[in-house]
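agent: user wants the full assembly modeled, not chains individually. Plan: 1) parse entity lines 2) check alphabet per entity 3) run joint structure prediction 4) return tokens. Steps 1-2 passed, two entities, 551 residues total. Proceeding.
--- entities ---
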Amino acid sequence: MLTISGVFAGYGGGDVLQGLDLHVPTGAITCIVGPNGAGKSTVLRVVSGLLKPRLGTIELDGTRLDQLGCAGVLAKGVAQVPQSQALFPQMSIRENVLLGGYTLRRDKTLLNKRYDHVSELIPIVAERSNDKAGNLSGGQRRMVEIARCLMVDPSVLLLDEPSLGLDPKSLTGVSQLVRDANAAGTTVLLVEQNVRLGLSMATHGVVLEGGRVRLEAPAGELMANPEVAELYLGGHASESRTARVSGASLPADTGSGR
Amino acid sequence: MTQLVQALALGLLIGGVYALMASGLTLIFGVMNIINVAHGALLILVAFITWRIWSLTDIDPILLSIVMTPLMFGFGWLLYKGVLSRISGSSPGMSVLLTFGIAITIEGVLNVTAGNRFRSATPSYFSESYRVFGISLPKAQVFGCLAAVLVLGLLYIVLARTWTGRAIRATAQNSSGAALVGIQAGSVAALAFAIGTATTGVGGSILSVLYPFFPASHYDWISRLLGIIVLGGMGSLAGALVGAIILGLAETLTATYGSLQWSTLIFYGVIMVVLLFRPQGLFGSRLRQDVMA
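--- prediction returned ---
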């Protein structure tokens, strides 16, 4: 269980997160939705250690994460795929993915084992291993970013806007990958502008507003919630049920969360 | 024809040495966005120490770089941890102010301790040359270039094949991406600064033989080296190499077919023309404006 308690955090101009309390159940896919500026990405940044909270605590199964910094959080098995580009553009795909295992660099056997596993799971890693990451399309980059995270075999995977800038086909691939990782035991916490897509992938949903949790419920319930439907799904709660069934094959632009 | 080949050969020899001197500067900028204006002063500092040891013991000055390189590595590490780490996250402009202060301090210390006079190490082979196919290659320049190429090769291997090198390149290409895979920016920065400074251990030793110098010579050197990395693209090692060779060739070709006074002017002319068409330098990548902090 990942527990965020009473977290205040921001970027110097006031707090974006204002006393956030959030529980992320182990083994679930939890999706955070909410309007622009609600602090969705900031939640992920404080968990991964990119941003230090001003107040409050973050715990993973009883271990404090909030003072560890990125490398320390990663060592506890929490890996993040950020919103904007995270790859090293002038390096090969292979090197990018291998760098995901930077913290394992002393154990060569494990590193190679993980690399083989990841390249089997995500074919593009093997297919384009010698291409520079800067030459990939948005969807391919997202795949490689996830592959890089999987190198540490994370217990918690943080995904910031996995649908951003992806075409429907890449989107299907990425969401399948997230489901596979989850099925293999990884807890997933994701942030999504495309509310319909995000909630259809998730088991739990969280609505964030003004840096605090406004609603927290199983994803299906949240989709059916008239208020959520009104605010984020274009006012058609019933339609969201069909969306859930057809899953990630929906085009990226159906979300009306912006 | 022989004259042309002679000029080209000399230009390449000098270019190799320039490349080594510029490599440390561009590495430090690439990883930390620090414009290390003290790089020239560090070269002159090493040149003075090398000259002093040579004049007392007669040990070969270029060979002395074997001692000076680890020393400068340590000095660079201390300089980063003690001074430069305090401005990490500030603008490159701040780093210019700080390292300019360091340069002036080194210059002042050298003025007091070593005297404000021209020095030059002149080992026994100083005025000898190799003759290959009718062109003459001064031994000092050949040894200097060989040492430079050797160190550049080592630097390449470290950057391309070791985890330290990968961490340095990763930080240079995408610092928040590097943080997310567990690379600690502070220690990588200290290492990169130390490695960049270590190159002055070899560069300064070579300089003591090839060029007469005095404490304020560092102004000449830093402007030349900055010119090289601006031409090649700030932060690019390949760019530093190409920029250095262009400067070396521009100098020897102008000196051969025109006059020595014009050689520097020609180089800056080349820089201006290149920047008109490629503002990011020959090998530079355009700075992304959307990178998150």
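agent: reporting back. The CA atoms of residues 229 and 240 of chain B lie 5 Å apart. The radius of gyration of chain B is 19 Å.
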